[in-house]
Amino acid sequence: MKVVDVAARACLVEVEDAVAAAALAAWVRAVGLPAEEVVPAARTVLLDGVDPVAAREALRRWATDDVTRPAPLVRLPVHYSGPDLARVADHWGCTTREVVDLHTSLEFTSAFCGFAPGFAYLAGLPLERAVPRLASPRTRVAPGSVGLADTWCGVYPTASPGGWLLIGTTDAELWDVDRARPALLAPGTRVRFEAAR
């Protein structure tokens, strides 16, 4: 872990990967480190509105904090009939059934949100299962589409352009401003996909 001051009352914490960034952000929120904003990304967490000296002292406890607070788990039923399911199977050298079996066997972690409100970058796909993006993005991806790109998984909350490989769809409401927590898959959330019946 490396802490870099980026302003008088802000610091950027560099960590190993997206899962560590999500875990650190959840820990900072749970222990009540006074920060106006906690913004996880792929390998960093921005702490804005903090005293960098106090933040450094608190962060030293992160690795040794023995109080574990399990992140919430969200289960998403998926209809595995996406237009790129066969392409992913070919890339992995397996059957489409095996793609579904692997995808539903993994636990993902919402590392950070971006691109669109409610779009979570889900870490957890093994490096050897990384897939390329489409050479030319689609002009419209339907809401609820479940996609893969590189080692990320994501679910499109609204219709939008996109270049991820689409393996299925879910009916889950990813973004709802009337919920106490509008993003269903807020950073730190654990996610399991299940084949819809």
The top-level CATH class of the largest domain is Mainly Beta
CATH architecture call of the largest domain: Beta Barrel
CATH topology of the largest domain: Cyclophilin
- The number of E-state strands comes to 13
Give the termini distance in whole angstroms.
Answer: 43 Å
Radius of gyration: 18 Å
CATH superfamily of the largest domain: Cyclophilin-like
Order of helices and strands: EEHEEHEHHEEEEEEEE
Helix/strand class: alpha+beta
Strand numbers in spatial order across the main sheet: 5-13-6-7-10-9-12
Count structural domains: 2
What proportion of the residues form beta strands (DSSP E)?
Answer: 25-35%
Low-confidence stretches: none
Tell me the helix content. 10-25%
How many helices? The count is: 4
